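User: Hey, my collaborator sent me this sequence without any context and asked if I could get a structure. I don't really work with proteins. Can you help?
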Amino acid sequence: GKGWSGGGKGKGGKGKGSGAPRVPRVPRPPREGGYDIQMALVPTGEQVRVARRVYVGNLAFPVAWQDLKDHFASVGEVRHAAVATNGYLDSGRPKSKGYGFVEFERAEDAVKAIQMLNDTELKGRKIWVREDRDDYELK
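Assistant: No problem. I've predicted the 3D structure and written it out in C-alpha coordinate form, which is a compact way to encode the shape of the chain:
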Protein backbone atom coordinates (compact mmCIF):
# COMPACT_ATOMS: atom_id res chain seq x y z
CA GLY A 1 0.00 0.00 0.00
CA LYS A 2 0.91 3.64 -0.24
CA GLY A 3 0.47 4.38 3.44
CA TRP A 4 -2.52 6.69 2.88
CA SER A 5 -5.64 5.94 4.82
CA GLY A 6 -9.10 6.61 3.52
CA GLY A 7 -8.45 7.04 -0.18
CA GLY A 8 -10.95 8.65 -2.55
CA LYS A 9 -11.30 12.33 -3.30
CA GLY A 10 -14.31 13.18 -1.09
CA LYS A 11 -14.42 16.08 1.35
CA GLY A 12 -12.97 15.04 4.67
CA GLY A 13 -14.37 15.74 8.10
CA LYS A 14 -15.95 18.95 9.19
CA GLY A 15 -15.73 21.79 6.72
CA LYS A 16 -17.37 25.12 6.26
CA GLY A 17 -20.66 23.55 5.24
CA SER A 18 -21.23 21.65 8.49
CA GLY A 19 -23.77 22.51 11.14
CA ALA A 20 -27.02 24.42 10.94
CA PRO A 21 -27.42 27.04 8.22
CA ARG A 22 -26.79 30.60 9.39
CA VAL A 23 -29.99 32.50 9.73
CA PRO A 24 -29.56 36.10 8.54
CA ARG A 25 -30.53 38.73 11.09
CA VAL A 26 -33.90 40.12 10.13
CA PRO A 27 -34.14 43.88 10.67
CA ARG A 28 -37.17 45.18 12.50
CA PRO A 29 -39.95 45.93 10.03
CA PRO A 30 -40.43 49.59 9.13
CA ARG A 31 -43.12 51.53 10.90
CA GLU A 32 -46.21 52.46 8.92
CA GLY A 33 -45.17 54.63 6.02
CA GLY A 34 -41.54 53.49 6.16
CA TYR A 35 -38.74 54.96 8.19
CA ASP A 36 -38.53 58.58 9.15
CA ILE A 37 -35.34 59.70 7.39
CA GLN A 38 -34.24 63.31 7.05
CA MET A 39 -31.43 65.04 5.19
CA ALA A 40 -29.28 67.16 7.48
CA LEU A 41 -26.59 69.70 6.82
CA VAL A 42 -23.86 68.77 9.28
CA PRO A 43 -21.20 71.12 10.66
CA THR A 44 -18.65 69.89 8.08
CA GLY A 45 -20.95 71.28 5.40
CA GLU A 46 -22.01 67.94 3.93
CA GLN A 47 -25.53 66.60 3.60
CA VAL A 48 -26.13 63.35 5.47
CA ARG A 49 -29.09 61.03 5.88
CA VAL A 50 -30.25 60.91 9.45
CA ALA A 51 -32.80 58.56 10.92
CA ARG A 52 -33.71 58.76 14.59
CA ARG A 53 -30.36 57.78 16.11
CA VAL A 54 -27.28 59.88 16.68
CA TYR A 55 -23.76 58.88 17.71
CA VAL A 56 -22.25 60.84 20.61
CA GLY A 57 -18.47 60.78 21.00
CA ASN A 58 -15.78 62.15 23.32
CA LEU A 59 -17.88 61.48 26.42
CA ALA A 60 -16.36 62.13 29.84
CA PHE A 61 -16.04 58.81 31.67
CA PRO A 62 -18.55 59.62 34.45
CA VAL A 63 -21.32 60.26 31.85
CA ALA A 64 -24.11 57.68 32.16
CA TRP A 65 -27.10 57.08 29.91
CA GLN A 66 -29.25 59.22 32.23
CA ASP A 67 -26.93 62.20 31.61
CA LEU A 68 -27.17 61.68 27.86
CA LYS A 69 -30.94 61.48 28.03
CA ASP A 70 -31.15 64.70 30.07
CA HIS A 71 -28.69 66.57 27.85
CA PHE A 72 -30.50 65.60 24.64
CA ALA A 73 -34.02 66.13 25.98
CA SER A 74 -33.59 69.85 25.23
CA VAL A 75 -33.96 69.19 21.49
CA GLY A 76 -36.67 66.54 21.45
CA GLU A 77 -38.23 63.46 22.94
CA VAL A 78 -35.53 60.89 23.66
CA ARG A 79 -36.69 57.32 23.16
CA HIS A 80 -33.48 55.59 24.23
CA ALA A 81 -30.00 56.59 25.36
CA ALA A 82 -27.01 54.32 25.90
CA VAL A 83 -23.33 54.66 26.76
CA ALA A 84 -21.05 51.94 25.38
CA THR A 85 -19.34 50.12 28.24
CA ASN A 86 -16.62 47.54 28.61
CA GLY A 87 -16.59 45.66 31.91
CA TYR A 88 -16.80 47.29 35.33
CA LEU A 89 -14.67 49.55 37.48
CA ASP A 90 -13.57 48.51 40.98
CA SER A 91 -16.45 50.57 42.33
CA GLY A 92 -18.88 48.33 40.44
CA ARG A 93 -19.85 51.08 37.97
CA PRO A 94 -19.82 50.21 34.27
CA LYS A 95 -16.60 51.32 32.54
CA SER A 96 -17.43 53.76 29.75
CA LYS A 97 -15.83 53.44 26.32
CA GLY A 98 -16.33 57.18 25.82
CA TYR A 99 -19.16 57.11 23.31
CA GLY A 100 -22.86 56.39 23.13
CA PHE A 101 -26.07 56.61 21.15
CA VAL A 102 -29.28 58.55 21.53
CA GLU A 103 -32.48 57.59 19.73
CA PHE A 104 -35.25 60.13 19.34
CA GLU A 105 -38.93 59.68 18.61
CA ARG A 106 -38.55 61.74 15.43
CA ALA A 107 -35.76 62.13 12.88
CA GLU A 108 -36.06 65.91 12.87
CA ASP A 109 -35.07 65.91 16.55
CA ALA A 110 -31.98 63.84 15.70
CA VAL A 111 -31.14 66.47 13.07
CA LYS A 112 -31.59 69.24 15.67
CA ALA A 113 -29.32 67.36 18.07
CA ILE A 114 -26.55 67.21 15.44
CA GLN A 115 -26.93 70.88 14.63
CA MET A 116 -27.41 72.23 18.17
CA LEU A 117 -25.58 69.86 20.53
CA ASN A 118 -22.39 69.04 18.62
CA ASP A 119 -19.49 70.72 20.46
CA THR A 120 -21.55 71.43 23.57
CA GLU A 121 -20.18 70.58 26.98
CA LEU A 122 -21.34 67.60 29.03
CA LYS A 123 -19.66 67.04 32.43
CA GLY A 124 -16.71 69.23 31.46
CA ARG A 125 -15.97 67.78 28.01
CA LYS A 126 -17.03 68.90 24.54
CA ILE A 127 -19.05 66.15 22.92
CA TRP A 128 -19.32 65.29 19.23
CA VAL A 129 -22.74 64.52 17.82
CA ARG A 130 -23.19 63.03 14.37
CA GLU A 131 -25.53 60.70 12.52
CA ASP A 132 -25.32 57.07 13.59
CA ARG A 133 -23.80 55.52 10.46
CA ASP A 134 -24.79 52.03 11.60
CA ASP A 135 -28.47 52.86 12.12
CA TYR A 136 -30.48 49.93 10.74
CA GLU A 137 -33.14 52.40 9.57
CA LEU A 138 -30.66 53.84 7.05
CA LYS A 139 -29.72 50.48 5.54
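In plain terms: The longest strand covers residues 78-88. You can pass these C-alpha coordinates on to your collaborator as they are.
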